[in-house]
Design brief:
The chain is α/β, with parallel strands linked by helices. The chain is 42% helix and 18% strand. One of its GO terms (molecular function) is nicotinate-nucleotide diphosphorylase (carboxylating) activity.
Length: 301
């Protein structure tokens, strides 16, 4: 698990912003034919980054990097970014999240890229907060999955943290997760666990179980983290009770077919986590806007 306060890696932000700008402007330095034709390079101004919906913001940390890279490509001064709220803040429609001041060309060229990243992250954070609120007081936490947008996993998992959720594994490299196809290939749950421990003894092993028998087999083989997959609430409660009676220190995660409507019901079975792929694969964006203030200064044509 990643610490809830873990920040985004600045090197990752720089790489991701560069790719996003290449996509929007063409290969470096690229161009914005509309902005560069209509706005003099010496025109300066200010713009408000504004929430158009209630929600939880995330991804504001990328904004300075976007405007800095755009300024570098255009050969213009870097705008200042006065961030008014930290990532993870609940905001209301109309709240100003940041004020940007500097060359208007830079502000307008950077607009869509910074909005795409911050709106996407804020949508994930807002969705996650709904789950975290639904689980409040139950002792269970909401987990994300690997069902992320290619290239944006770090941002989306950061957004989950901002929304009050918990990251599970970052990829295939840091945690072993024995699922049904691995069991088929290895011959049994026990054989799959043994194979992972022999080849990669340093990693945590998690095991997916669809039935009570599979869960108990995994625990007997030494598994200390079980994914209880697609279980109806009565079966889930039965499995939790049986595992707790059999071994201490086993972490239990409910996964599959979870909805906000049954979140508390599932949590009350005694599981430690609810794993929700929809946090990252189905969250709508939070609508954000960059509103340029009227009146430019220093403009010459």
């Amino acid at each position: 698990m990643i610490a809830p306060t873990a920040a985004l890696d600045p090197a990752w932000i720089a790489r991701t912003v560069a790719v996003a700008l290449d996509e929007d402007l063409g290969l470096e330095p690229g161009r914005d034919v509309t902005t560069q034709a209509t706005i003099p390079p010496d025109a300066t101004g200010a713009a408000d980054l504004v929430a158009r919906q209630d929600g939880v913001v995330a991804g504001l940390v990328v904004v300075p990097e976007v405007v800095a890279q755009v300024a570098g490509r255009l050969g213009l001064p870097v705008p200042t970014v006065d961030q008014r709220v930290p990532d993870g803040t609940r905001v209301a429609r109309g709240d100003v999240l940041a004020v940007l001041r500097g060359p208007v060309q830079v502000l307008l060229v950077a607009e869509r890229t910074l909005l795409n990243l911050a709106s996407r992250a804020s949508g994930v954070a807002t969705h996650t907060r709904r789950w975290a609120d639904a689980l409040d007081g139950t002792g269970a936490q909401v987990l994300d999955t690997r069902k992320t947008t290619p290239g944006l996993r770090a941002l989306e998992k950061y957004a989950v943290r901002c929304g009050g959720g918990t990251n599970k594994r970052m990829g295939l490299f840091d945690v072993a997760m024995v699922k049904d196809n691995h069991v088929v290939a290895a011959g049994s749950v026990s054989a799959a666990i043994a194979a992972v421990r022999e080849r990669f003894p340093d990693v945590t092993v998690q095991v997916e179980a669809d039935t009570l028998d599979q869960a108990l087999e995994a625990v007997a083989a030494g598994a200390r983290f079980l994914l209880l997959d697609n279980m109806a609430t009565p079966l889930l409660a039965q499995v939790v009770a049986a595992v707790r009676a059999t071994a201490d220190g086993v972490e239990l995660e409910a996964t599959g077919n979870l909805t906000l409507d049954r979140a508390r019901e599932v949590a009350q079975t005694g599981v430690d986590y609810l794993s929700v792929g929809g946090l990252t694969h189905s969250s709508p964006i939070l609508d954000l806007a960059l509103d340029l203030s009227p009146g430019l200064t220093g403009a010459r044509r």
